[in-house]
Design a protein that fits this description.
transferase; 3-phosphoshikimate 1-carboxyvinyltransferase; 5-stranded mixed β-sheet; binds phosphoenolpyruvate; alpha/beta; 3-phosphoshikimate 1-carboxyvinyltransferase activity; Enolpyruvate_Tfrase_sf; UDP-n-acetylglucosamine1-carboxyvinyl-transferase, Chain; about 425 residues; 4-stranded mixed β-sheet; about 30% strand; Enolpyruvate_Tfrase_dom; 12 helices; binds shikimate-3-phosphate
């Protein structure tokens, strides 16, 4: 198990960072490519452990996937071309892999078992089992605790209109993917629009998708089964969830100026940029263009004194994975920052309310956990500490950024967990010094 030691730089961070491919889009490009006829070509695919889990699951189901540094080729076999895996599908640490694949497996004529690591196998799966089983799927939790390992038996799927209690792209996507195999139009209404990559990308692959955001803020996506999906060329934009660490580093380390390049700024993902703006951040958008049907930009980030803010309501799903690093920014902002409506933090790779609070306190921060978020005093100073990442990549990276502005050394425990979403993370920090 590795440790990484972070010390505050003596001068500002300067230079540019090319952000690696978006994790959500990389997963989906392999999944949808596998279900399309012919070959899908993916560039800037995220070579993180989570996305590699998705590749290995589809290889086990008979899909040939060529993975080279330049591109990925997914030789899709059509909607009914997957074959029975000869052993358990290992979804590693990845909630996205587990939940989205469940929607696909629900519609297959073979049985399968999905299982991941200890963290994954303790995350809630009732949220997908319940709607998928109400469509006629046969998914059971092998240990009877509504968690993976999951057994998925062949079932005959019929359409539903599901009203989800949580704004979750994983739940929405699982249902829409099962909807590809249902008898009629399947719809999902969520309380607030969550990331919409599945809707955008499946439309590109030729599926019949409709999406609507209603006057009360709820959002409905629906899918009508089609004969086949068509292979695509996908250029994956940079992951704003990975960019968030370098945006925070540029804002927090005095004297910094960092060009964060190739950032996907889809509005369903870009809540962190709105929060930065509300905190008084100096960020200039350059080269606004698009990649893979998603808007992108280069972000020029300069050191800025920050002020506290309130993060709540419909913005939460658009920045849910960025809350650990937002908490670090809040510790250096003037005033008290309140984060609420974010109970979903409790069911990520760790309970991220607990793991943020534990580590921020270890660094001398003043933070109070609440039922659905936390309250952070902007004390303007942290001290180096030993960080327990609990093997959660977002915790490891958020506290590495804290280490750049803390007094003394910060040691990130189990730092190798960054490989889940950002294998080059520590190397990239080193290059900016
Ligand atoms: O659909 C996706 O790609 C993801 C959705 C989010 O999870 P939920 O849908 O559980 O909120 C997010 O936290 C995760 O990192 C990726
Ligand atoms: C929650 C995350 O991912 P997943 O749900 O796919 O494990 C994440 O990357 O922060």
């Amino acid at each position: 198990m590795k440790e990484a030691t972070i010390t505050a730089p003596s001068t500002g961070l300067k230079g540019s960072v090319i952000i690696p491919g978006d994790k959500s889009i990389s997963h989906r490009s392999v999944m949808f490519g596998a279900l399309a006829k012919a070959t899908t070509e993916i560039t800037n695919f995220l070579q993180g452990a989570d996305c590699l889990s998705t590749i290995s699951c589809f290889r086990k189901m008979g899909i040939e996937i060529e993975n080279t540094p330049e591109r990925i080729l997914v030789h899709g076999k059509g909607l009914h071309g997957l074959s029975a895996p000869d052993s358990t599908l290992d979804t590693g640490n990845s909630g996205t892999t587990t939940r989205l694949i469940s929607g696909i497996l629900a519609g297959q004529n073979f049985s399968s078992i999905l299982s991941g690591d200890d963290s994954l196998n303790s995350r809630p799966m009732a949220r997908i089992m319940e709607p998928l089983n109400s469509m006629g799927a046969k998914i059971t939790s092998i240990d009877g605790n509504n968690c993976a390992p999951l057994r998925i038996e062949p079932g005959t799927l019929h359409s539903i209109h599901y009203h989800s209690k949580v704004a979750s792209a994983q739940v929405k996507s699982a249902i829409l993917l099962a909807g590809l195999y249902a008898d009629d139009t399947t719809a999902v209404t969520e309380p607030v629009l969550s990331r919409n990559h599945t809707e955008l990308m499946l439309t590109g692959f030729g599926a019949n998708i409709a999406s609507e955001t209603h006057a009360d803020g709820t959002a409905t996506a629906s899918i009508t089964p089609c004969e086949e999906l068509y292979a695509q060329k996908i250029q994956v934009p940079g992951d704003i969830s990975s960019a968030a660490y370098f945006i925070a580093a540029g804002l927090l380390v005095p004297g910094s100026e960092i060009l964060v390049k190739n950032v996907g700024i889809n509005p369903t993902r870009a809540g962190i940029l709105k929060v930065c703006e509300a905190m008084g951040a100096d960020i200039t958008y350059l080269n606004e263009t698009s990649a893979g049907g998603e808007p992108t930009a280069d972000l020029l980030v300069r050191y800025s004194p920050l002020k506290a803010t309130v993060v709540e309501g419909s913005i939460i799903p658009t920045l849910i994975d960025e809350i650990p690093v937002i908490a670090i920014m809040a510790a250096f902002a003037e005033g008290t920052t309140i984060i609420r409506d974010a109970a979903e933090l409790k069911v990520k790779e760790t309970n991220r309310i607990d793991t943020v609070v534990q580590n921020l306190r270890a660094m001398g921060g003043t933070v109070t956990p609440t039922d659905d978020g936390m309250i952070i005093e902007g004390t303007g100073a942290l001290k180096g500490a030993h960080i327990n990442s609990h093997l959660d990549h977002r915790i490891a990276m958020a506290f590495a950024i804290a280490g750049l502005v803390a007094e003394g050394d910060t040691v990130i425990g189990d730092s190798q967990c960054v490989d889940v979403s950002y294998p080059a993370f520590f190397k990239t920090i080193a290059q900016l010094r």
